[in-house]
Amino acid sequence: MTTPLLNPAIAAQMSNASWIRKMFEAGRELSHRVGPENVFDFSLGNPDVPPPPNTVKVLRKIADRAGEPMSVGYCSNQGLPSLRVALAKKLSHEQHALIHAEHLVVTCGAAGAITAFFRAVLEPGDEIIVPAPYFVEYTAYAGHFGGVLKPVATRKPDFQLDLDAIDAAITPKTRVILINTPNNPTGACYTQETLNALAELLARHNTNRDRPIFLVADEPYRALAYDGFVVPPILPLSPYAVVIGSFSKSLSLAGERIGYFLANPAMPDVAHLIAAVTMTTRTLGFVNAPIIGQHLVEQLLNEQVDLSIYARRRAAMAGVLVNARINFLEPQGAFYFFPEAPGGDDLAFVNALFAQNILAVPGSGFGCPGYFRLAFCVHEDIILRAADGFKRAASTFR
Ligand code: PLP
């Protein structure tokens, strides 16, 4: 696309629209052609499980007070003090560290937290090491500020971190190691043992460095882990650890845009980093996270969506894939499967699925060809009704 209206870099990004976007558009066209009830759309990670039952009651209470002056006005750029106090208590428990309200910034989702953090710490040319496959939006979040993503392949078939490869990828320009657990798109959760080894590696590189390497854990899916798995805490791993959290998935509030940035209280000069992220949240134009959402989250802080709904869908999807003889590793968290593409060519296989009215995203779109992503935030009935289509598509590659 060339137009004098746009910055050429943005125009280029638009031409290279993400695979998720492409599937979304192809799905719309398919839906017109065959009717929405005949489309099996596993392309989007938009949580469809209802928010906790108390959501309506709490919103009504907020609405009752909305006529009072300032009740829906600007708030502190760092977030509502009462929410930060409550969140600090919850995160102290989750992260095995003593966290106070001043160590947190409430943000416009995890996306807003990562963007504000990158704005605060990146200089042009800084590298962000990210295990692949990875959430593609990271490329744009970093690129806005001259940051360069450096994908490092994970181990197959379990998608755990390849620590030797991460070690080898670190250069004087490395600024961030960005992990995402539970992972989008693989559903992998990193074990305590893996994380400890990562921490050791990072500590070795961080000695005698002028600018430290941050360990950033993007964990919007922390609450969605199955079979009793508890995602290990991140803060004890490094003084330079940062946690990015969100209520988009845990409370199914993705449109309300509430997340947070948490920096390790043990980080030297931590107050400067928090002040900077508070400022960049303001100056990037977020100003403050939505105020109604902040009140809502404060009241729902100890609740979460009904995980058993996702667990049942995970079992249903596993059954469908086994039946179609497609190889996969059962996801330990989040709401995605990342199976091997039968025949090895992910684009060809996603096209074969499309011919069966099934929408999936090729692994190439996540920096990992040969696989494809299925989001199981859809009704169980859709998963079960897609079974024959998966079987037919897979059989054409045998
Ligand atoms: N990080 C990952 C890995 C995601 O999958 C998503 C959303 O799907 C985000 C960040 C952004 O989440 P939020 O809605 O909290 O901005």
Strand order of the largest sheet: 2-8-7-6-5-3-4
Count the helices. How many?
Answer: 14
- Molecules bound to protein: pyridoxal-5'-phosphate
Number of strands: 12
Helix content: 25-40%
> Largest beta sheet, briefly?
7 strands, mixed
Q: In percent terms, what proportion of residues is strand?
A: 5-15%
Name the average pLDDT: 96
The helix-and-strand class reads: alpha/beta
Uncertain runs? none
Radius of gyration: 21 Å
What does this structure look like?
The chain has 398 residues and is an alpha/beta fold. Helix content is 40%, strand content 13%. It is built from 14 helices and twelve strands. It has helices at 8-15, 19-34, 54-65, 81-95, 109-121, 137-143, 163-169, 192-206, 270-283, 291-300, 307-323, 346-354, 380-385, 387-395, and strands spanning 40-41, 104-107, 127-132, 148-153, 174-180, 214-218, 241-246, 259-263, 336-337, 358-359, 361-362, 372-375. It has a seven-stranded mixed beta sheet, with helices on both faces. Strands 9-12-11 form a three-stranded antiparallel beta sheet. A two-stranded parallel sheet has the order 1-10. Helix 8 (192-206) links the parallel strand 5 (174-180) and strand 6. It is globular and about 60 Å long. It starts with 7 loop residues before the first helix and ends with a helix. The mean pLDDT is 96. Bound molecules: pyridoxal-5'-phosphate (PLP). Pyridoxal-5'-phosphate is lined by residues 45, 109-111, 135, 180, 184, 218, 220, 246, 248, 254, 259.
